[in-house]
Design goal:
This protein is mainly α and 318 residues long. Helix content is 66%, strand content 0%.
């Protein structure tokens, strides 16, 4: 391969990796103001919410923990769960909306317990919400995605549903990035089948939960929202929110529509938005994220530009 071809490949990978990382950030920030609202309340207040409600797009624990994974990849040139656990504790800001169990996890990390002894039996989506960098970094190797997604999730989540959710989300990101790099259209049935194959030995119930979203046809955003809501409770439980987020990507045709659909579902909107944004960003790329969504993102010490710099460092080292 010529130097020009290598540079071109890296430019494409950078666009997709940035798209996924900032897609997480954008979906998180858009969904945060309506977290916990039912769809009907969101629709009554905004119609279809498609703008940043807050002047500053502030991220929650979803993006803060994703930043910890990015920092681990920068520092180690690959995923290292012990380093990542330390990053989670170092970055921990209780004002970012963390669940109560994570406070105890962070305390155990700070006490010096090994990374694989600090987690809980949570079946929540915390392992999935932050996982985008692992799906991007290991995108060419689904087994590596699975292995590293499980290790990342186990820092905080040991329940099979929580682990399966992290693997499903990371796999969706990796597959979307692969297709985006090769300009291949997403084939929904094949996409779902490959995700199912990754998780069925972790949690059969989670794998079976994907069947609901497989049956939803493409239609108007409102129609898709209703169909997804008929199948899933959209809580912080991974088995409810991860399939919905993947569906928001598969059932739409642009980054904008995927995120708009996700944050309008109601329920755990910041996390569903973050996960849908991560997958859609990996496929469509940074260049397809609306500028009016990027500009308001908070940009302090570990804000938008910091995320961009981390991704640049990771991709340049590959």
């Amino acid at each position: 391969m010529t130097e020009a071809a290598v540079n071109s490949d890296k430019e494409q990978l950078l666009d997709k990796f940035l798209g996924s990382a900032l897609g997480t950030f954008v979906g998180d920030a858009m969904g945060e103001p309506v977290e916990g609202w039912p769809h009907t309340a969101i629709y009554s207040r905004f119609g279809l919410l498609d703008t940043m409600v807050r002047a500053e797009g502030r991220y929650t624990d979803d993006t803060q923990m994703m930043i910890g994974i990015l920092e681990t990849l920068v520092e180690r040139g690959g995923f290292d769960p012990a380093v990542c656990a330390a990053k989670f504790a170092e970055n921990f800001d209780p004002a970012r909306g963390y669940g109560r169990r994570i406070f105890d996890v962070v305390e155990r990390i700070r006490q010096g317990l090994p990374w694989d002894q600090v987690g809980t039996d949570s079946f929540g989506n915390g392992g999935a919400m932050r996982i985008a960098p692992i799906g991007c970094f290991y995108c060419r190797d689904l087994q590596a995605i699975k292995k590293n997604a499980i290790m990342s999730a186990r820092i905080t989540h040991n329940h099979p549903e929580g682990l399966a959710g992290a693997v499903a989300q990371a796999t969706a990101v990796g597959l979307a990035l692969q297709c985006g790099l090769s300009n291949e259209p997403i084939e929904p049935e094949k996409f779902w089948d490959r995700i199912t194959a990754q998780v069925i030995d972790i949690d059969k119930g989670f794998a079976e939960s994907l069947d609901g979203i497989k049956s939803v046809p493409k239609r108007s955003v409102i129609g898709i929202i209703q169909a997804i809501r008929d199948w899933y409770g959209l809580s912080l439980r991974a088995i409810e929110s991860v399939p919905a987020a993947i569906g928001a990507f598969v059932l739409t045709d642009s980054f904008r529509d995927a995120v708009v659909l996700a944050v309008n579902l109601g329920g755990d909107t910041d996390t569903i938005g973050a996960m849908a944004g991560a997958i859609a960003g990996a496929y469509y790329g940074y260049s397809q994220i609306p500028q009016e969504w990027l500009d308001p993102l908070e940009n302090g010490a570990k804000g938008r530009d910091y995320v961009i710099d981390c991704v640049n460092q990771i991709v340049s080292s590959l």
